[in-house]
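Consider the following input, taken from an annotated entry for ABC transporter permease (Mesorhizobium montanum).
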Amino acid sequence: MSVEAQQGIATPRIPAGLGGLLPALILIGLFFVVPVLALLLRSVTDPVPGLQNYAALLGDGTYARVFFNTFLVAFVVTIVTVLVAFPVAWMLAIMPPALASILFGIIILSMWTNLLTRTYAWMVLLQRTGVINRGLMAAGIIDQPLPLINNLTGVAIGMVYIMLPFMILPLVGTLRAIDPMTLRAAALCGASPLAAFRRILLPLSLPGIAAGGLMVFVMSLGYFVTPALLGGTSNMMLAEMIAQMIQSLLNWGLGSAAAFILLVVTMALYALQLRLVGSKRAPGGA
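Applying the prediction step yields:
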């Protein structure tokens, strides 16, 4: 019998199952919690203790414009990505498996292509003498080249293309899980294709839309390469501003405050998505 048992001292034990999670918890603590706490501490202590960095970000019109550009582009990119990705995902869900695998591989392959290369390709396509403007002018649709680069329009176009796979992947999984007999039953009951889509297919696909939409929106908020190359300095977004503050201006306090605001918004959106989607799933799982 051990000394602790003889003296009646309770030996603390690790709860069952926690031992296997301990390495992961340590990694999360070291590489996520500690950096976030350091970021928060830097934002309220540099250059002097206080909330002056947050006051400057939220009270200055220049910074407010950067926040507006960031959330506007993220919102537009998310909406357009959903509208484009939904029919593609539906096509992949209902087509023969062999053909669907080929198209699915092409979509995945686009994700493996270097991001900088894809962005430079869009710079060539969107410029005033690019393929898009020349094609529209040759078709007689426009008389003068459209300004599709060095503005938020070019940023949105390039980011929608890059974000499409991240929206298609969760949507395909959700749509494939829907029983086709449900739509056939609706058609036999006299429902029009639009009514079947609005009352059956769309509600059942909302979890995939919510998951993909959140992923696209959050990634769009923090994107750097595409906005920097397609948007220019006059249409700066939050990630560009943070990089400029830290790398060029060496203003760690203001940059840390901006990064922490972005993190808080991201976590709040994730919590909202969990609450909304979870509340819709709860009655079905009961």
